[in-house]
Amino acid sequence: MDQHMTIEGTGIAPGQAAGPLARPRADANRTTAAAPDLAAARDHVAQQLEQLAEDAWDATHADMVRAQRAMLLDPEWWDAIGRRTADGTPAAPAVEETGSAFAAQLAALEDQYLAARAEDIREVARLWVRALSGAPSASAPAGSVVATDRLTVSDLLAGPRVAAYLVRDGSPTMHAALIAQNLAIPVVVVSESSPLDAVPDGTMVHVDGDGGRVTVGSGAPTGRRAAAIRHGPVPWNGRAIEVRANIGSAREARAAAEHGADGVGLFRTELFFEAVGSIPSRQDQIEEYQAAVRDAGGPTCFRTFDLGADKPLAGLTPEAEDNPALGQRGMRLYASHESVFRDQLAALLAATAAGPVEIMFPMVSTLADWRYCRNAWAAMSAEHPPVAVGVMVEVPSLLFLVPELARAGVDFLSFGTNDLTQYLNAVDRGQGDVAHAVSPLAVARAVAYAARQARAHHLGLAVCGSLAADPKWAALFAALGVDELSVPVPRIPVVKAALADGARSATDLLAALDTHDDEHFLDWLHHP
Ligand code: PEP
Ligand code: MG
User: Fold this and answer.
1) Which one of the ligands is nearest to 303 CA?
2) Active-site residue, from 44, 61, 206, 464
3) For the domain that residue 312 is a member of, what is the CATH number?
4) Nearest residue to 8 (alpha-carbon basis) of 218, 216, 214
5) Which of 157, 273, 386, 462 is buried deepest, with most CB atoms within 10 A?
6) d(CA 154, CA 220)
7) Which atom of ligand 1 is nearest to the CA of 414?
């Protein structure tokens, strides 16, 4: 193809990538024996998914795969299939038809997040049917731009690492898209009527996941995928910005170091509690935390357990509350479960033997909350080398208490923009469909206000919520004086590359705060 052609679509995972076009092909060597019956095929898929979850070093990816496994094992689905086969429908169509019916029910729900789970059921049904026939799975070579009908969780996690995907169907909140976003693999949905089908395999293609555009042919930009691994803090306007990792297990600490992390900015210890399924023993915690500190390749900032609301744990969080996100969550549970809290602090103290450790507390909303946490730690650690101790700024009240927190011994603030956005705007963080109720300008100004006070009091400043993983926001935070960004592991090279390439001055970025509405703010942030 001599000239280039542009195809307009919809981006569901951002980023830019280029590579030769490829359609997945079945690999005859990957054929497995057909399962003798429905139950054996289901067991085979359950095992496959469990293996995938165990191999996933990112805890959220593992959760998504386990959610698919739970769908597969849902007795309601099994019963529905049984009714079909009793009527004489063969096994594979029975799985397909019942799967489609369940998926259609979910897709019709108003809640966009739940509706996007429909695609998980369809994917599980396809895996089940494949196990029944023993047909080989299809894949495309590493580095290619893959044109396929749909994006799947298993291809993303188990297949070769490809440059980008072009799909017929999908939404930005489906699990596979969330994983692609996390892995920084751009994805564009291209309609069936587009000329893509006529483009031969091997043609060079550039995918713009931000603008939802595909450029095909010899004129296509060939820029390699952004984000080479880069070690060490990033020089930015005369300062050095650390980019650290958000993790939930020691296994992820190793992956973080391999991705060039300058340490761990947020170890969500409650994810380790959830993985164990109950309150872990002090010894188990010591082993997990020490392993993370050893492997992290830089200081490891542990957040004490943040259970409650969307992260329940039997025996620790209340059975039912009218409004759990505003109730017993994070450090609010510590006074009534003091021995669990103290055990964790003891384990964290033991982790300091393995390397540099920092500690912070979730859901602190008053000075009394802070003093409670600080005193518990001080009582335990008095005779040990000092450890930097900080708070998550995620409840808006803390925005107005920074000087007092500094005087009360806080060493650093870490902005949790996920909860700060939720509580500042009174919007449930899981409800994407009320996203129009969120003011990004207000969130930016809130961080700016507290950051200014924190700088005046020489506090360390970090951002560990999702906004830190967006390169434009990352630059804005740097301009606000934040010296550490903490992001999901796959985003580390992306954020480092963006900061290193960033041509915008702090003054230019800060002008975004003087815009007069959310639309102009976002425009300013994204298009100077
Ligand atoms: C946050 O609230 O931004 C945060 C980083 O914590 P979590 O997402 O675990 O609540
Ligand atoms: Mg939070």
Assistant:
1) 1
2) 464
3) 3.20.20.60
4) 214
5) 462
6) 29
7) 5
Burial annotation 255-282 (CB, 10 A radius, 16+ → b, else e): bbbebbbbbbbbbbbbbbbbeeeebbeb
Residue range(s) defining the domain that contains residue 436:
235-526
Q: What is the largest CA-CA distance in the chain?
A: 75
C-beta separation of 443 from 467 below 8 A: yes
Q: How many domains does the chain have?
A: 3
Residue of 178, 273, 464, 485 to mutate, ligand 1, most atoms within 8 A of C-beta: 464
**Any domain includes 446:** yes
The protein residue whose alpha carbon is closest to atom 4 in ligand 1 is 416
14: nearest Cα among 386, 495, 524: 495
Verify that 184 and 264 share a domain, yes or no: no
CATH of the domain at 92: 1.10.274.10
Same domain for 202 and 329? no
Q: Are 270 and 290 in contact (CB under 8 A)?
A: no
Minimal CA–CA distance to 337: which of 287, 273, 279?
279
Catalytic status, residue 384: no
In a domain, residue 229? The reply is no
> Considering the domain boundaries, does residue 226 fall inside one?
no
Number of helical (H) and strand (E) elements in the chain, helices listed first: 20, 19
Closest approach atom of ligand 1 to CA 486: 5
Examine the residue annotation and report whether 301 is marked as an active-site residue of this protein.
no
Give domain status of residue 402, yes or no.
yes
Give the pTM: 0.74
Give per-residue pLDDT as tens, 404-460: 999 999 999 999 999 999 999 998 886 655 557 889 999 999 999 999 999 999 999
pLDDT in tens, 283-319: 999 999 999 999 998 999 999 999 998 888 988 998 8
Which carries the bigger pLDDT value, residue 160 or residue 215? 215
Please measure the distance between the N-terminal and C-terminal CA atoms of the chain and give it in whole angstroms. Answer: 35
